[in-house]
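[[Encoded backbone]]
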Amino acid sequence: MKQLVKLNKRPTWDGRGFTYFLRYEGENGKRKWKTLGHANQRKAEEQRAQKEKELRMGYTEPGSMRLRDFMKDSLARTGDQIRESTQREIKSAMNDFIRIIGNADYQSITLAHGELYLQTCLDRGNSKATVAKKLRHIKRLFKLAVNRKQLDENPLQYIAMPKSAKKKVNIYADVQCQKMLKAAQEYTAEWYPKKSVKWDLMITVALATAMRRAELLNCTWADIDFDAQAIEVNTKENTKDTWEWRIKDTDRRILPLTGDIVQMLVDHQARQPEGYPYVFVPTERYDYIQNVLRPKDKWTLTDARLKVVNNFRRQFNMILKKAGIKKGTFHDFRRTAISMWFTNGMSEHDVMVLARHSSFATTHEFYLAVADDLVDRARAATVQGLRQKMVQNGAEAF
């Protein structure tokens, strides 16, 4: 009688040993394999015999799916609860996982597969931060499977995530902000106003509110309360005049403006043609989105986040160059604004509410960047300690 289940060995990820796995055909004729996670030959043969018996009796595993189908099923169940960009990142991470460990049954995945994937990514030169991000996406899929009763436990639950040094929070100094505002005014003046972003105004509002780039570019005149000197960040629906856009983490909030900024906005609105709803979208770009892209269904939620303005990064880099600043991003204005709030006495809780950080840890990083005087205290202690030692040795004070 033909044997339906084969028992095979495969080396462990470190090459120092091996584990057994079963290889067989599923009910749909596709080849499947199941890792046993050990090197005990007697136990492995018993498991092979049991699997053989199950197949001959017509038994099939409930919810059996290969990883690629499992990913598609999970994303379909999740639907639009997550962004298109996040879905793409999840697909990219899982496809990379499949390339390395194979398109196995998702129920057969073990911690060893995760460790093999982690080490392979590091060996091929991926940064620790990149690998950690990929693993978080993959772990999330398995966690959702546990929540949906598809799995008893997350096979990657206890994987040790690679740790990398945290990047320094880049904050623009006052003089840098002044230079960039001047450069932005000059850059805007050089370009046809219907095509160019009002860069100096957008930078000013970013510094005042810590709004993200997409939040600013999807801001409409209806979001500004001129009397209350406030600006609201909220979602946008598909209408005749506006396109759909979703707030990061669905966090609506109201942020303060100053009297001077309100006046700048009033002046800007007066120069815009009537009927244009967006504050910072150039009129020619708005017309193109409305009259060309949207009618042809070539405008998506991702576009509303990333492509409202063409060549945004290139234009901003030109402003940096004009200002003589070698390194920086537009998002650094948000970091600068948050740090400014801390410097001027706002509490961590208040800053977290205004910035809408998803976790307190993110807010605390900014607090430490501004408030931590560890280096100054260490310097003072060093000076005092050296002074005492110099005195003890009969040397002159310094």
